[in-house]
Amino acid sequence: SRLPTRMAFEMPPAKTCIALVITFIVCAYLLIAQPHFEASPRPDWTGYVVCMIIVGAVMLMIHNFNAAFCMVGINILFVLFGIIKPAEFFAGFSSDAVIATGTLCVFADAVFQTSILDIVMGPFLPTKAALWEARLRVMFLGFVFSSFLNNTPVMAILLPVTEAYCARAGLPLRSMLMPLNFAVFLGANNSLIGSSSNLTTLQVTKDIIGAAYGTPEWKAPNFFSPLLLGLPVGVAGLIFMTLFTTTLLPSNEPGKKASFVEKDESDELEIPDRAECLQVPGQPMLSYGYEYLVTFKPIAPLIGQLLRESGLDKKDNTIALKRVITAKGAFSKPQEWINHVIAADDLLIFSCTAVGVANLRKRRGIQMRNDNVEALGEERRLRCLMEAVVGASSSWVGQTVTSREMQNVFGGKAAVVAVRQVSHESGVSRKSEKAYLLRTDGTAASDDEESGPAPAQREFRIEVGSLLLLEAYAGFAKSAPKQHIPMVSVVPGSKPPRWYTGKDKMRMLAVALVLCSVVFTAAANILPLSISGFLAIFFMVFLKIMTPGEAIGAIEGPTLLIIASSGGVGKAIGHTGVGEWLGDRFVEMSFETFTGLLIWFYILMSLLGCFLNNNAQIVLVMPICYSAAMKVGVGFRPFMYLCMMMATISSFNIPISRATNLMIVNRGPYSFADFAIYGMALQLFLMPIFLVLLYVFEVHNLWDYFNDVCAPYGSLC
Description:
It is a single chain. With about 725 residues, this protein is an alpha+beta fold. It has two domains: about 95-250 and about 515-715, no CATH class; about 260-350 and about 380-490, no CATH class. Helices cover about 50% and strands about 10% of the residues. Strand 3 and strand 4 (about 330) form a beta hairpin. Helix 5 (about 95-115) packs parallel to helix 8 (about 150-170) and helix 10 (about 195-210) packs parallel to helix 22. It is elongated, with a radius of gyration of 29 Å. It is a multi-pass membrane protein. This is Citrate transporter-like domain-containing protein. It is found in: Membrane.
């Protein structure tokens, strides 16, 4: 082979360049200036080691290394260098904040599984509301719910509800999802359990303040103490997003991806006629192309509504309504079903991707019509959707999808929802494609009909490469018969909804009561949050809302590791004098003024929020805030709330900063510039409001004033 005469220079990614520049500046400063950490009796080299280890960890986190791994790693290095003792590192693992955060993760997952928030939201989302009013309603609900639940499950619950609402009301999704996402972040600042970063802040504050924490000298925050600042800042944010979203996020952006169905409006599938669908309404269907055909039946509260007002006929990138089969006839075009009133005996046939089927099932008012799935029984919480490919060596090839051999192999662990083929054996175009009912062994399904083979055009046999959409128990992906289906993949977020039966409604009521009990006992200081959380978990497992395995799986291990590691990092920064030295630098930049410190730390947290985990920000910045506050002679409490609230607000700027941002990027769709413009505009708007509140509270000692006002109510206030 011939070598190129000139090597092309490849520019490294921007984040790598930024990381290298920061590292170079820090190293050069330490080598040239050689700062002396006067606050520590230890040698200066320990301070240099702490600085370089922390800078190295920040660089790794900028490059998407796991934040928990980095935080634990730097603690281990601190122990190896003798900067902290092993006991100081491991002390964080027994803290109340770690236990409370773990229990709240489990509880939030239980709320998500029961979909109780869907029922609560229904009456608040009218279809005839104006765009600004609809946006305000959705944001308000997210703002309230996130005060008591972690933001990720809240967004996971509200996303499909909001998407269905926008489809039903004909509202642009782009103007709704980003404001909802930011409202959820703002709502997390209303209580101590709104976010894991709030509990991390309390733990770091306890480590910094020491024995004085919780005494009259330094009173610990109560359950709703963040509400004093979180409510006015949150309301200001909601007003801003209500008024300016349409301007900053226009909904008619060019280049938006078209729906897969909008490309082929004229390419209609030939779906089985009304008579056949009514004879075998619960049988799976076959389609040729890239989507599955799935049958649903309407249930309350959609029965009696006009189909056009239900939002079911709105197309998106994963779902499209293909046919409506009623007692009077079948409709295959929107102009035919536009004025149809949904009835209980209707059948709705949708063309969906696998993810589209999962999302469609989460919409209230419709239920999948499939006899095979219903035969699996009631343990819905243990099942999910999977896609499987039939292999060339399978004996299923040439048989029907409901053959006895296939059913024996599945053994009641899986059921076929739909089947599709990517290409037709005759090579016909998509305009000529047909859909088939998968009847048992190709024979007539009704006993009233004459026995014998089904019509030729309705016969279908499994072929090599057939794609089966299955509902199966979670372990089926590993235990699936590889000789028949060598490739099986789980459809993410596809657990069946649990709101149809009477037991489901009882579980929803139980979860609501448990949520209120946990909040009340923690707020009234009757039981520690960790204890009440454990009691709630045992209660929900007993009621079969979730299994013990699901409860353990819901715990966010990385978040707990970061909280547990916070004490070691804070002690290392304090022991070596690095925190006090960095505090002096911020005091100098702020001209030894309280206002200047607030501004600088607001900017610092905003920048770090673009790259670092919110808990990692708190662990690294709060010791520096404490040293700077002591130098200027002001209280530490405003800086505690600044770090607590900025850990969530700082996630507005870029889409990769938080998991919930990534959840909405493709649904909007939103670009990097959308987050930068909209997020930075919101942060700049909130900056003076937030900082003025902190300044007024500290200068006029409103902390003590509100403590006196709330004294009659105890820990509830």
